[in-house]
Design a protein that fits this description.
The protein is of the alpha+beta class and 827 residues long. The chain is built from 32 helices and 23 strands.
């Protein structure tokens, strides 16, 4: 919709108009939100909020049933005698044909071709969007010479809801169809890790994945550009070289530049250095490839002051290995290192620590006043000088047989390729496929390449095959929408593993698929429960949870340092870590999903606890902390959510309220109509007014009130939290007023009381989370017929006490997850 943004301070990161697929999903999802709005009493408001409700509750409750005539069975009051011929068709001709009729079809929309309800049902998406526009009085546009009355608009909306939108779940048998899905960057790296056994993570250099329906694993937007394919070719070469036939193996050297290092209190980044000004460490976690002797190095310099040189200690896993004097200044940095030390294979914390701070502000010369340590990089290297050169473990995993007496090159290569390609393709490799890769190996050897080199070339070829890069689900009748089929066990194994782990199936899933047992209901449930307790299930928190709760937007968080104090890279990561660990706890302990709203616990380290004002937490490590007696509950009071729903200079009740409606209750207002002034204009006109007063002035415009009445009330309930989620009682010179009243009449005095009110909306929250997780699991937007599946999953959740496993099992046992159909249109 053209014009200025009237959702006041939505921010530049929110698109003006989402892609068509997302609009369809929003239109479908919004019906659950309208149920919630009706439940909290919006029916008592002015008709301007009709867009939120879509008619009376009678239009929702019985909508899925059908009468004897085959038409949706609805209350007479719901449609008030309206019909297409008597109400809808004349309405369209009078108000819509100028822009969407026989002569003009703006945006490709033409209403003159519809003759009856049956033709409208065939274009359900269009009519669903039409109903949304009419509810909000967004169409016809304000400048149109003829404008319908409210009664006329409501009659058409009620007709659409009664005759076009209802789905008969007893007659619907459509599992939908997923577009072939390319592995996104995270899935690619994880799959390489589990397939090959090397930690090269080439996906970090790939172009960013497009996002659709709120997630980056949606088949419709995961395209394959020429640039990305070039990256795949380069990555395949690097992966194969790292995995196979390195004789002698490449030395283990890992260098972590300043931008890769974490910093404890007392440090900051300046250019290409980490500067430690008082005390503290520049550190990271490094995965040592093998047991052995190692050397730790650092590129460092110092601001020299006082009677001695700056001193730096090398520390591994909390143990100081050695201390050195850093003699160079920032213009002449030098390399320093420890003596050799023994370490085991695996993760180790390595750091450079500043131990002798000096500060004398009265020194005559400015350069003599302050001593600081500058760290350019940390580097860890394994000393292989005394060890026999051996092939890496990944080599042994792939090249498990070599040519020998009785085993020809062709036989050995065939065994290697068959096993590797079968795992890479996530289904048995065919004889034809194996033959092509074996021939490639033989041709390489004919030019003088070793056997290992030939296998390396075959592995490269497998890694750029569409059957590796895409999750292929091939249909016998791909163009027949009536051809519904069950997934094969191998396809089901991949859907499971990429849903819950963001990686390929493990050996147990492959084994069950090979025996044809995975799809058995009891076996499937056992596997789901096993997978949810596996450490790899952390990917569900990182990838689904992080995108559902918008945690990736924390990377773009940039509070104004002139107004908001205390923000830094480490606090940003602490915010993200708290919410991610909370999600992992819900998954691992199979907690009720309602705890996302109401939990009386969280995860903190000392720094974030101090930020919150919570006492008794020590150290860098996060641990579970009770919130009893605190002014916090659930993720709505996490600093991550509060920060990403704020503006750079101030909090935003509108953003916070809108975020909760979108992510917790399943609906959000549409884009504002044109010509609505933004909040900054209101602020300039009423400079002395508080934020609450400014929004009250903004809501005086009837076009604004319908959206803001609920968003603002919810958002103000969290005004005790500042831009970074810290508790406050004053906002500048004004006391914080976090009280409010919802349209239902429910009153609250602060965030805890508001959270308690929201926590009672379990059905709506369950539906919202179900719809979002179903989108993520299927890799596609939801269609109207998917609401039947959503209803079943929500009912199961209610029976099972809202346990997280019940949500996942409901999705995994559903037809859309277990089946697919051909394309070619709606059946």
């Amino acid at each position: 919709m053209p014009g200025k943004s009237g959702i006041t301070d939505r921010g530049p990161d929110v698109p003006r108009r989402p892609p068509a697929g997302l609009r369809r999903a929003r239109a479908t999802v919004s019906r659950s939100a309208r149920r919630w709005f009706a439940a909290i009493g919006l029916a008592a408001l002015s008709p301007g909020v009709a867009w939120l409700m879509g008619g009376t509750e009678a239009a929702f409750g019985p909508a899925r049933a059908r009468g004897a005539d085959g038409q949706p069975a609805t209350s007479n009051d719901a449609i008030a005698g309206a019909s297409f011929e008597t109400h809808v068709q004349p309405f369209l001709a009078k108000y819509c044909f100028d822009c969407h009729g026989p002569k003009v079809q703006r945006e490709g929309v033409a209403f003159h071709g519809f003759a009856d309800a049956k033709s409208a049902i065939a274009a359900r998406d269009l009519w669903e969007r039409t109903a949304d526009m009419l509810r909000f009085d967004a169409m016809p546009p304000a400048e149109h010479k003829l404008r319908p009355s409210e009664d006329e608009r409501n009659a058409v909306v009620r007709w659409i809801e009664a005759r076009v939108l209802p789905i008969d779940c007893t007659q619907t048998d459509d599992p939908g169809r997923e577009t072939i899905r390319r592995l996104n960057r995270v899935e690619y790296d994880n799959t390489v890790r589990d397939l090959v056994g090397v930690q090269v993570r080439p996906g970090r250099d790939f172009p960013s994945d497009d996002v659709g329906e709120g997630f980056d694993n949606i088949g419709d937007v995961l395209s394959l550009s020429p640039l990305l394919f070039e990256k795949y070719l380069d990555a395949a070469e690097k992966i194969a070289a790292a995995a196979i036939g390195a004789k002698p193996p490449q030395p283990f050297v890992e260098r972590y530049h300043a931008e890769d290092l974490d910093i404890t209190q007392g440090g900051q980044r300046e250019g290409s250095f980490v500067v430690l000004t008082t005390k503290g460490e520049a550190y990271t976690t490094s995965t040592f490839a093998t047991d052995g002797e190692y050397v730790l190095r650092a590129g460092a310099a110092a601001d020299q002051a006082g009677p001695e040189k700056a001193k730096m200690s090398f520390v591994v896993d909390g143990k100081t290995l050695s201390t050195v004097e850093v003699t160079g200044d920032p213009e002449e940095w030098a390399k320093y290192e420890t003596a050799k030390f023994s370490a085991t294979k695996g993760k180790h914390r390595i750091s450079a620590e500043f131990i002798n701070d000096y500060y004398n502000p009265k020194a005559e010369k400015y350069k003599d006043r302050d001593r600081n340590l500058h760290v350019r990089y940390l580097e860890i290297e394994r000393d292989d000088s005394k060890k026999e050169k051996a092939v890496p473990e990944s080599h042994q995993r792939i090249v498990f047989v070599e040519p020998r007496e009785g085993v020809s090159v062709k036989d050995a290569a065939g065994q290697i390729v068959r096993r590797f390609a079968t795992r890479a393709f996530r289904r048995p490799a065919t004889d034809e496929e194996v033959g092509r890769y074996v021939e490639l190996t033989e041709r390489a050897m004919a030019t003088g390449e070793t056997f290992e080199g030939g296998v390396r070339l075959a592995v490269q070829a497998v890694l750029v095959s569409p059957h590796f890069l895409f999750r292929v689900e091939a249909d016998a009748k791909p163009d027949d929408p009536r051809a519904v089929r069950a997934l094969t066990d191998y396809e089901l194994a991949s859907r499971l593993s990429y849903f819950l782990w963001s990686t390929m199936p493990d050996d147990e899933l492959f084994s069950l698929a090979a025996r044809g047992e995975l799809r058995l209901p009891k076996v499937l449930e056992t596997q789901v429960r096993r997978m949810l307790t596996d450490p790899k299930a952390a990917a569900l928190a990182e990838n689904f949870g992080g995108q559902w709760l918008n945690l990736k937007r924390l990377d773009d968080l940039s509070p104004d340092p002139g107004v908001v104090r205390g923000f830094g890279t480490q606090l940003r990561e602490d915010m993200r870590r708290e919410t991610t660990l909370f999600f992992e706890e819900v998954v691992r302990e199979d907690r009720p999903i309602g705890e996302f709203l109401t939990a009386d616990y969280t995860f903190l380290n000392a720094r974030l606890a101090q930020h919150y004002g919570v006492e008794g937490v020590r150290g860098e490590e996060f641990r579970k902390v009770s919130l009893e007696g605190q002014n916090r509950a659930g993720v709505l009071t996490h600093a991550s959510v509060l920060a990403l729903t704020s503006n750079p200079k101030r909090t935003s009740p509108v953003k916070r309220g809108k975020w909760i409606l979108e992510n917790m209750l399943g609906g959000a207002p549409p884009d504002p109509p044109p010509g609505i002034p933004d909040l900054e204009e209101t602020q300039k006109a009423h400079d002395g007014a508080t934020l609450r007063q400014q929004l009250e002035i903004h809501r005086a415009n009837p076009n604004c009130a319908s959206c803001h009445v609920t968003m603002d009330a919810i958002g103000f309930g969290f005004e005790n939290f500042d831009v970074l989620g810290r508790w406050r009682t004053m906002d500048g010179q004004n006391p914080v007023d976090a009280s409010g009243e919802l349209p239902s009449g429910e009153k609250f005095a602060g965030p805890i009381e508001l959270v308690a009110i929201l926590g009672k909306r379990q059905a709506d929250f369950s539906r919202c989370v179900t719809e979002k997780m179903l989108v993520y699991a299927l890799g596609r937007g939801l269609r109207p017929y998917d609401q039947c599946t959503v209803d079943e999953i929500v009912a199961r959740l209610e029976r099972d006490g809202g346990r997280f496993s019940s949500l996942v099992l409901g999705i995994v046992h559903s037809d859309p997850f277990l089946k697919r159909r051909g394309d070619g249109g709606q059946p």
